[in-house]
Amino acid sequence: MLALHWKNALALQLNRRSGGEMSNYRIQGATGEWEVVIGLEVHAQVTSEAKLFSSSSTQFGAEPNTQVSLIDAAMPGMLPVPNQECIRQAVRTGMAINAQINKYSRFDRKNYFYADLPQGYQISQLYHPIVGEGELLIEADEKAGLPEDKVIGIERIHVEQDAGKLMHDQHPTMSYVDLNRCGVALMEIVSRPDMTSPAEAGAYLAKLRSILRYVGSCDGNMDQGSMRADVNVSVRRPGEELGTRTETKNVNSVRFVMQVVEVEAQRQVDLIEDGGTVVQETRLFDPTSGTTRSMRSKEDAHDYRYFPDPDLLPVELDDAFLEDCKASLPELPDAKRARYIEKLGLSVYNARELTAEVETFGRFETLLAETAKILGKDESALATQVANWSLSIAPGVLKSLGDEANPAYSTAEAQAKILKMQDAGEISGGQAKEIYEIVLKTGRDAEEIAEAEGLKQVSDTGAIEAKIDEVLAANQDKVEQYRGGKDKLFGFFVGQTMKAMQGKGNPAVVNELLKQKLG
Amino acid sequence: MSVDRATVAKIASLARINMSEADLDTMVPEFNTILNFVDQLSEVDVSGVEPMTAVIPNKLRLRADAVNADPLTGGGIRDKILANAPVAEHGFFGVPKVIE
């Protein structure tokens, strides 16, 4: 098979260990310990304007059946023509998970009869998927139950059509069919059974979602069904052969995936320990009760009679197309995180928090660039200050104001001005927050606010010295004690001076001058 | 290659086509006639020939990602889409309830 390997597209600088190693997650059964084995099949809706094989719109939430073409409705004689953008997005996604890209792939028909699929078959890729083996790194996060970095294998990504939507509760005897979603492009991303705990399954889905959103190949909107996971779970005695797995379909959040693993593994353990056998079957998760139940589908329901789609020639990709795909990739989460730690000197925690979501790092990088520009300083010198501001201070102020804040006023320019004043020692951290509050409420200029509202700290040595002299004169006894060796009193003098200055003294200058005066 | 009665009955059931015993009586020989006809292809020696999907060296054409670029393959034609529906209500197809 013709294939290109993009293994070296990203050099991960982080410590990693190979997939397949066991986490410490165990289920304590009545007869001993059980290990859980998890694989995920994620369906991700490809971001495109038009559908996979027709030019009708993919937009969410339209009036029923208004985005259906004669192709989507499977009218006789209509021929599918693939949308280049859907192919491109699948390839870019494959590259983002270091996967083998197959220059030759093909579409097959998966035959089944159901009201949401007028063709009577789904066009999918069974025999020759567009993307082959890849991998994804989930990062250590002690608090989340992930003691070490771990690489999860990805078996393949193939492109296929979504089906329509059925509504069963609108009419006493009929189901209503809306074909708007019918024919929208999906990527099915199939992992290896490399996960061994609910935390790993959750982290895998969250990381995959993050990568898809970086790449822009899927909006990751799980509420609207843009991403949904089929969760394969089995249990076994530690180190023994794989057990029989069940597949819980269409789980639509990270939390639910973790919950499914937990309850389904426990159900299997209880079943086996009671002398029963796990049946390979499809199950459904009910979020209300927090349990899974069998779909009791008919035995031959999975006889899909796949065969190559005679309406579609093979997809053959040339080097120029692949180069374009590769060149269009942004800096990806792992590379960005490594850069934040190594080049910007950020803490592991800050780097992880900032790189998780596209919006978060977007705001951070814009603000960092703006602050570095107006201060004329190197980004690495300001990164930690800007990171703390972006991650905790700014969101904190925004949250505390609630409806009073106008998010439109939270521009990078306004925030950079505040950070600049703080960096120059003109304002304290507390004043920075106060100024930002006024900015968010009114949209006034940050520097003007600092002046007009008296929100500046005094760095003028003359003014500070005058106050220090007053404090020392009023506390002669303590000055004597300090000079006599009672070092702890230094904090008292700082406090008194700051109080005399209504909290507006620059602490660094106050400290420095106090040290000189107390000698 | 040939198929037996049970296979034909199963294929019909997977396609949700109701077939009586009498229908099967005619359908099984018809299936086998078709299969025998196609079987002639296996008489051709294709050793050394790469599997192909077409004999003409054709390349797959890809479409630009544009909505309703071609009126024949675009949406916004609900009336046409629903024209042949046995039941159409509130813009939906109505089908017999398909939930257990």
TrEMBL record, chain B:
GO terms for molecular function: ATP binding; glutaminyl-tRNA synthase (glutamine-hydrolyzing) activity; transferase activity. It comes from the Bacteria. It is an enzyme of class 6 (ligase). InterPro entries: Asp/Glu-ADT_sf_sub_c, GatC. Its EC number is 6.3.5.-. Allows the formation of correctly charged Asn-tRNA(Asn) or Gln-tRNA(Gln) through the transamidation of misacylated Asp-tRNA(Asn) or Glu-tRNA(Gln) in organisms which lack either or both of asparaginyl-tRNA or glutaminyl-tRNA synthetases. The reaction takes place in the presence of glutamine and ATP through an activated phospho-Asp-tRNA(Asn) or phospho-Glu-tRNA(Gln). NCBIfam families: gatC (TIGR00135). Belongs to the GatC family. This is Aspartyl/glutamyl-tRNA(Asn/Gln) amidotransferase subunit C. It comes from Altericroceibacterium indicum. The gene is gatC.
